[in-house]
Design a protein that fits this description.
The protein is of the alpha/beta class. The protein folds into 2 domains: 149 residues, Rossmann fold; 106 residues, Rossmann fold. Helices cover 42% and strands 16% of the residues. The protein is built from 11 helices and 10 strands. The strands form 2 sheets. Strands 4-3-1-2-9-10 form a 6-stranded parallel beta sheet, sandwiched between helices. Strands 6-5-7-8 form a 4-stranded parallel beta sheet, with helices on both faces. Strand 3, helix 3 and strand 4 form a beta-alpha-beta unit. It is globular. Bound molecules: D-glutamic acid. D-glutamic acid (DGL) binds next to helix 3. D-glutamic acid binds next to helix 3.
Length: 272
C-alpha cells in the first residue's frame, strides 16, 4: 500500500514513556492518526543488551511498517541510542524515522549553557551516544551523565510520587552545579515537576517533547506527509498495542492522556 498524509504514524517505546511524546504530537498535530507500541513484556529496555534492543526494536518497527505507517517515532532513548543506525538502515526509504535524541542534541538551546547533566537508563549511558553527539555540535559544553536504573521500572509500575521522590533526590544529588538537565529517558518526563522542585528553578529543564515534535511536524510538512484535515468518514481513534495483556497502569495513563476514544490491542511476538 502506498503511504500518504492519511497514513498512521507509528510510535515505539518499552512502555508508558513514549505516551508523553504521543500526547505532544496530538497537541501539535491534531489530525494525525497514530499507532503506539509499548513492549511492556520486555520492559525495562534500560537493562537489556544492545543485541536484544536491536533485535526487538526491529521486530516492532517491522510490525508498524506492515500497518502502513508513513513514519516511525522512536520514543525511547534506550532504543535510539543503541539501535537507531540499524533501524534507519532497514527502513530507509520505506518510512520516515524520527527519534527523541537527534532533534534535542542539535538544538541551539545548548549554546546558552556551560555544563549540563544527563540522567538516563544504563543502556543509554553505556552507549555513550549523548556525549558523542553533543560534543560533535557543542565542543564548549561540559557534560556529566548518570545512570538511574531504578527509575523507569517504578514509573512504569505506577509507584506513588511520595515513594519515588526520595529515589529521585538520591540520583539528583549526583547532578549538582549544572545549568541544565536533560531527561534522557522518556519515562522520566513524568517526573518533570518533581525534578524542577528539586532544583528550585535554578537548573533549566530541557523541553524534549516540544523540540522533538516540532521537528517531526516540520519534516512531515516538508515531505507533504502532514495530515492537514481529518477525513469525516474514517475512524481514526489511536491504537495502543502492548506485548503482553494490557497492564493496568498503562491503560490508566492512556485514558488520562487520551480519553475514552482509543483502542487497546495485544500483540505477542516470538521475541529473541
Ligand atoms: N523509555 C525508555 C527510554 O527512553 C526506556 C525505559 C526502559 O524500558 O528502561 O530509555
Amino acid at each position: 500500500m502506498k503511504i500518504s498524509s492519511l497514513s498512521p504514524i507509528g510510535i515505539l517505546d518499552s512502555g508508558i514513556g513514549g505516551l508523553l511524546i504521543a500526547k505532544e504530537m496530538k497537541i501539535q498535530m491534531p489530525n494525525e492518526y497514530f499507532i503506539y507500541f509499548g513492549d511492556t513484556k520486555n520492559m525495562p529496555y534500560g537493562e537489556k543488551s544492545k543485541d536484544f534492543i536491536v533485535k526487538n526494536s526491529i521486530k516492532i518497527a517491522s510490525f508498524l511498517y506492515k500497518k502502513n505507517c508513513k513514519a516511525l517515532v522512536i520514543a525511547c532513548n534506550s532504543i535510539a541510542s543503541n539501535a537507531l543506525d540499524f533501524i534507519q538502515k532497514k527502513f530507509y526509504k520505506k518510512m520516515l524515522i524520527f527519534n527523541v535524541i537527534d532533534p534535542v542534541v542539535k538544538s541551539t538551546i545548548f549554546l546558552s549553557y556551560k555544563k549540563i547533566g544527563i540522567i538516563a537508563t544504563p543502556a543509554t549511558i553505556h552507549s555513550n551516544f549523548y556525549p558523542k553527539k553533543i560534543k560533535k555540535y557543542y565542543r564548549h559544553l561540559d557534560v556529566i551523565q548518570i545512570s538511574a536504573p531504578l527509575l523507569a521500572p517504578i514509573i512504569e509500575n505506577g509507584w506513588k510520587m511520595r515513594k519515588i521522590n526520595p529515589i529521585i533526590k538520591n540520583y539528583l544529588n549526583h547532578l549538582k552545579s549544572i545549568d541544565a538537565i536533560l531527561l534522557a529517558c522518556t519515562h522520566y518526563l513524568f517526573l518533570k515537576k518533581e525534578i524542577e522542585d528539586f532544583y528550585h528553578g535554578k537548573v533549566h529543564l530541557i523541553d524534549i517533547q516540544k523540540i522533538v515534535v516540532k521537528e517531526i511536524k516540520e519534516k512531515l510538512n516538508e515531505k507533504e506527509l502532514l495530515c492537514l484535515h481529518t477525513p469525516y468518514t474514517w475512524n481514526r481513534f489511536p491504537i495502543f498495542y502492548t506485548s503482553n495483556s494490557i497492564p493496568f497502569f498503562f491503560e490508566k495513563k492512556v485514558r488520562i492522556l487520551f480519553g475514552e476514544k482509543v483502542f487497546f490491542k495485544t500483540h505477542i511476538f516470538n521475541f529473541a
